[in-house]
C-alpha cells in the first residue's frame, strides 16, 4: 500500500485514511488512477453544485481600500468629467469621429480612414500600448501579460508570438514605467491608458492600425500613436462646444447630485471644484445637472487646472477667470472668493489661501494618477475614485452563470493542484482534461466583461495594473457620487480584512 500513498497528494491520503475504516476503502483500492480521479472530480463537482452561491454585490455600494472616517472630513473636492458629469456612449462616438476626421484633414492620412466606424465594445480602460511594437495589451499588478488580451490592430496576437516578442510573460518595470533616476533616453516604451477619454483613442488607434496591416501599408507604431493622441486631444475644444449645445444627447442626468451638495452645505462642509475642462463647458453641464445656481454650492471653482501639474507644480499663479470676456485676468490673486471663477494655479496656493489641508480634505476624481496619486502621496488628502465601469462589472459579477463558473473555477484549480503529483499516463491525461476545462472557464469568466480584454479590475486571477494603482491611491471608490447619499456624513468606511495566501487555509476549510 505504500506505493499508492506515495502517488497520492496529501488531500487524497486523508480521504483514503478515512476510507480504511469503511467498506469504501476496498472499492477505491481497486480503482485505476483514471477512475479514481474521475470519481474525485465528480464528487468535487457535486460539492460545488451544493454550495450556496455568494450574495449579490450592491452596484451602488461604496467600497473601502483604506479606513475613512467621514466625520473628520470638512472639505469636499470634485473633478468634473466622469466624476460629476457622466457621459453617454455618444460622447465616445463623437470623439472618435472628430479624431478620425482630424487624422485625414490635418495629418493627411488615407481618405479610406474616414470609412472606419467606431467599435464601442472593443477596448477597456487601463490597457497599455507598446509604442515600440505597436501592441495594445493588458498587464496585471505583477507586470505580467494576460495572454489572450494582446492585440495588433483589431487582431489578437498568439501567445507564441507574444513570448517571441517579449522573451518572457513578465515585462521589466523600466519598460513599463518611467524611472526618474535614469536619463530621458531610457524612458518606458509603454503608455498606460488610464482614463475614459482614452477609450475612443484606443478604438481609433486599433482601427487605423488594422487598416494599414490589411492593406500592407507600412507605418511606425509610435508615430501612429502620437498622431491619434494629438488628433483626439486637439478635438476636445470642438467636442466641448458640441456637447455644451446638445447636453441631453451626451450627458446622463443625475438628479441626486444637487441633493448631495445640499446635504454637504447644510452640514457646514466646504465644497470646491478643480477641473481641466473650460468654464463654458463645465457651466453648461452643471446647469443641466444641478441648476443655474450650481456655483452657490461651491466655495472655490477652478477651471483649466491642467492636472496633474496643478498638483505637482508650485510656481504657476492662480488667476481670476472673467466668464463674460471668456479670458483670465492678469491681477494677482490674494484670496479666493465664493462666486468667482479661477483659472490654473496650484494645489499649494489652494491650500495656502484656504487653510484646507491634510485628512480634512476628501477629493473625488476618476483618474488614479492625475486626480488622486499626488494629493494623497504629497499632501495627505483623503481620496475617492469614481469608476463608471463599476456598475457593469458588479452587474456581471451578480449573474448566476458568473457565480457558478467562478465557484467551479476555484474548486477545479484546487483539484488540479492537489492531484498534480500523479505521473502515470492515464492520470496525466485526466489532469490535462481538467486543465483544458480550467482554460475554458477562465476565458468564459473573462469574456462576460469584455470579449477582448475582460474585466477592468482583474486578469484571470490577479488584479490588473490599473486596479492595483486604484486601490493604492483611493481610500474609497464607487460608481457615482450619488451613492454617498446612502451613508451618513459621520459614516466610517472599513476595508474588509483581506485574506493573504498563507491565511487561506485557516479562513476557508
Automatic annotation (TrEMBL):
InterPro entries listed in its UniProt record: HAD-like_sf, HAD-SF_hydro_IG_5-nucl, HAD_sf, Pur_nucleotidase
Alphabetized PANTHER family for the sequence: 5'-NUCLEOTIDASE DOMAIN-CONTAINING, FI20020P1
Record's cofactor remark: Binds 1 Mg(2+) ion per subunit.
Gene3D superfamilies named in the record: HAD superfamily/HAD-like
Keywords of the record: Hydrolase, Magnesium, Metal-binding
Entry annotated with the keyword Magnesium: yes
Residues noted as binding GMP in the record, renumbered to the chain: 81
Active site: 79, 81
Co-factor(s): Mg(2+)
Organism name: Parnassius mnemosyne (clouded apollo)
Superkingdom of the source species: Eukaryota
Residues binding Mg(2+), per UniProt: 79, 366
Keyword Metal-binding applies: yes
Molecular function (Gene Ontology), one example: metal ion binding
Family per similarity comment: Belongs to the 5'(3')-deoxyribonucleotidase family.
Protein name (database record): 5'-nucleotidase domain-containing protein 3
